[in-house]
Design goal:
By secondary structure, the protein is an alpha+beta fold. It folds into four domains: about 90 residues, SH3 type barrels, CATH 2.30.30; about 120 residues, 3-Layer(aba) Sandwich (D-Maltodextrin-Binding Protein, domain 2), CATH 3.40.190; about 120 residues, D-Maltodextrin-Binding Protein, domain 2; about 150 residues, 60s Ribosomal Protein L30, Chain: A (2-Layer Sandwich), CATH 3.30.1330. The protein has 16 helices and 23 strands. Strands 6, 7, 8, 9, 10, 11, 13, 14, 15, 16 and 19 form an eleven-stranded mixed beta sheet that branches. Strands 4-3-2-1-5 form a five-stranded antiparallel beta sheet. Strand 8 and strand 9 form a beta hairpin.
């Protein structure tokens, strides 16, 4: 998002760049951003006011408003001066002096928020980003408080890239953004309406938009018990009974008699916020619960106590035992990667990065969301956004459940139609979801369109039929729900066609084949979706 003066400058810089690149020739350039990062690669115009540069980890989009200097390079003279006039640049690295020099020559990124993201995942992404811009001399320095670290990364012949990470919980992401103490917020929950309003009132933009809200990865909140505990599943109601203190002994659930020891994340944690919203709801956490700032410490405490139970990010199961989750309407889900990617798992969640409206740190955001970063995300133990096919066991279970859940004549007809569409196919691990009551794609879905287009270009999916199955919740008139589900499927189909994907089939099924109970706001949201099937 550009301010008016930024738009003028952006357009000016973009025109000069485009004029200096010969048609059909990939011109090499060195682009230096205002925060000191340097990218070298082939320049590609992407859209008005945005540069694209092909780097070793893919296409990076850099808003012109965040560019300090552009040097067009001759292949035979990598350090040559620009061949055509450039906008008057800010002082290049090393040209300033005194206090101004330290501000201009050292790129610094400040991240604050979720411990789930900040304890490990963001550290690996920062290292990968630094290495990608040539800063492979990397060291971490402990901060003044626990969960605070600073990255110092240097490369040969250039200035350092610095990053400060403060991981004290998701709620601190938005207070740090509001105060100006952070450039990027890390959150393991979506921003709340009151937080959106507060930041907008400060002139920091719309943090619910796809330009400022970025789904980094996916995670599941796993309910953990000791490995010796014979139980394998609990319902959401039973879990709420335990954590609220309504039931205090394992014998109440068919387990070995013994007092239940409760372990919980602390109040600042996005994991706790997710658990409270999805499980406890209006109930309060038992005051006897032992609280933890760290996922790892909580998981290890459960693993060490035969009567223990707790919850943590799916990436931190470690030596504890995860339970399957049964819903009140008869669904049962284990915390698998596929079900977390589709967000069918009842305790699945999104991990977010929130960026300020000035786009000054867009290059890091683009790297973190790139295809190259997906391996880093998986290696860190989280569920990445790469799209893949379902397994046969999923198909059989899905059809059995859909047939069982159909009650009305309309639902049975839609379920039969859905079975016919999906039979013999595979479901891809992406579900497009929408802003409430609309056919407008949400922030994850906007990026997933591009990811899906890339997948459909692969040889395994060429010349195969793409079926987009739209669904709604069960609230309201069946005819309206059917129409809305069809509109949502067509919205995804239209976005795919605009990007050159093979013409998909878009079909609406209304409230048939639910993946969640329609008794909570979260369940209603999960059921408002478009699934992707390949035949």
């Amino acid at each position: 998002m550009f301010k008016p003066w930024s738009r003028v400058r952006a357009a000016y810089v973009f025109v000069l760049l485009a004029a200096s690149v010969c048609p059909g020739v990939a011109q090499q350039a060195r682009v230096t951003t205002k925060d000191g990062n340097v990218f070298v690669g082939a320049i590609e115009p992407v859209e008005k006011g945005v540069y694209g540069i092909q780097t070793s980890y893919g296409l990076i989009r850099i808003p012109a408003s965040s560019v300090r200097q552009i040097e067009m390079l001759d292949a035979s003279q990598p350090n040559a001066a620009p061949p055509s006039p450039q906008p008057t640049p800010l002082p290049a690295a090393g040209q300033a002096s005194g206090a101004a020099a330290s501000a201009l020559t050292l790129g610094k990124l400040r991240l604050a928020g979720s411990n789930t993201i900040g304890a490990k995942l963001i550290l690996k992404l920062l290292e990968g980003y630094a290495a990608g811009i040539g800063d492979n001399q990397i060291r971490w320095v402990a901060g003044a408080e626990p969960e605070q670290q600073s990255l110092i990364a240097r490369g040969s012949g250039r200035d350092a890239f610095l990053a400060d990470v403060s991981a004290h919980g998701s709620s601190t992401a938005f207070t740090a953004l509001a105060s100006g103490a952070a450039d990027i917020g890390m959150a393991s929950r979506a921003i709340k309406p009151e937080e959106i309003q507060q930041l907008a009132a400060l002139g920091l933009g719309d943090f619910s938009s796809a330009q400022q809200e970025h789904v980094l990865a996916l995670d599941g909140v796993a309910v953990l018990i000791n490995a010796a505990n014979p139980l394998s599943k609990l319902s959401l109601t039973q879990i709420a009974d335990i954590f609220s203190g309504a039931k205090k002994d394992w014998s109440d659930f068919g387990g070995k008699p013994g007092p239940i020891a409760i372990y919980s994340r602390d109040d600042k944690s996005g994991t706790f916020d997710t658990f409270k919203t999805l499980v406890l709801q209006d109930r309060k956490l038992d005051e006897r619960a032992k609280r933890f700032e760290s996922n790892e410490d909580l998981s290890d405490a459960v693993a060490a106590n035969a009567n223990g139970i707790g919850f943590a990010s799916l990436a931190y199961i470690r030596n504890a035992k995860p339970l399957a989750i049964a819903t009140d309407c008869g669904l049962e889900f284990s915390p698998s990667e596929f079900l977390v990617k589709t967000e069918d798992y009842p305790l699945s969640r999104r991990l977010f990065l929130y960026s300020r409206s000035d786009d000054s740190h867009a290059p890091f955001i683009e790297y973190a969301l790139s295809a190259a970063a997906q391996k880093t995300i998986a290696d860190a133990g989280f569920i990445n956004l790469a799209i893949g096919p379902s397994e046969g066991s999923y198909i059989a279970a899905r059809f059995a459940h859909a047939d069982r859940e159909a009650e009305t004549r309309a639902e049975k007809a839609s379920t039969k139609k859905f079975d016919s569409l999906a039979q013999g196919g595979v479901r891809l691990s992406v579900a497009f979801r929408f802003k409430s009551g609309t056919a407008t794609l949400d922030s994850r879905a906007v990026r997933d369109i591009d990811r899906l287009v890339d997948v459909l270009k692969q040889p395994a999916y060429r010349d195969r039929q793409i079926a987009l199955a739209g669904f709604s919740d069960s609230v309201g008139q069946a005819t309206r729900n059917m129409a809305l589900s069809r509109d949502r499927a067509e919205a995804v189909a239209s976005a795919l066609r605009k990007r050159g994907a093979t013409s998909p089939v878009a079909v609406g099924f209304g409230a048939a084949a639910p993946v969640a109970c329609d008794t909570t706001p979260q369940g209603l949201e999960k059921n408002r979706r478009v699934e992707v099937w390949i035949r």
